[in-house]
UniProtKB/TrEMBL annotation:
Domain SCO6045-like C-terminal: 14-96
InterPro entries: SCO6045-like_C (IPR058711)
Pfam families from the UniProt entry: SCO6045_C (PF26136)
UniProt protein name: SCO6045-like C-terminal domain-containing protein
Length: 138
């Protein structure tokens, strides 16, 4: 018996699973056979979970909005697939106009220390890498 892995391994099942994931996290349409209200409730729950995770990476940003944080997060990240808590929060911070002072300072600190182009994972800026080497004695 041979086992095949990959996107075509399960044929229609893999396609249905991909459609469901797309509907839940990337704003895709509800796949046939799924209740739209149930999908919407699950989608909102997943966004709240992502908002909590982003708040752990961006505490000043989240605290700046208090109880409104989950809705601010959802406003900017709904329809976008998850890219990790750090990047999700970074994308929200960049998208919000008129950031509160604490959030603006947090974003400025990240922007000074890291390079992030919105597509790839953040990377330390060159001076930060060099400073790390100096501290390690290399």
């Amino acid at each position: 018996m041979s086992v095949h892995w990959g996107p075509d391994a399960a044929g229609p099942l893999a396609q249905r699973q991909a459609a469901l994931v797309d509907a839940l996290v990337a704003g895709g349409p509800a796949p046939p056979g799924f209740d739209a209200a149930d999908l919407d409730a699950t989608r909102r729950a997943l966004l709240r979970k992502r908002a909590r995770e982003a708040a752990a990476q961006w505490p000043l940003l989240a605290a700046s909005y208090g109880d409104r944080w989950p809705s601010v997060f959802a406003e900017h990240r709904a329809g976008h697939g998850p890219v990790g808590a750090l990047r999700d929060g970074w994308d929200v911070a960049r998208a919000v106009t008129g950031l509160p002072p604490g959030a603006a300072a947090e974003l400025a600190g990240r922007e000074a220390a890291w390079r992030y182009d919105g597509r790839r994972s953040p990377r330390p800026r060159r001076w930060r890498r060099l400073l790390g080497r100096v501290r390690r004695g290399r």
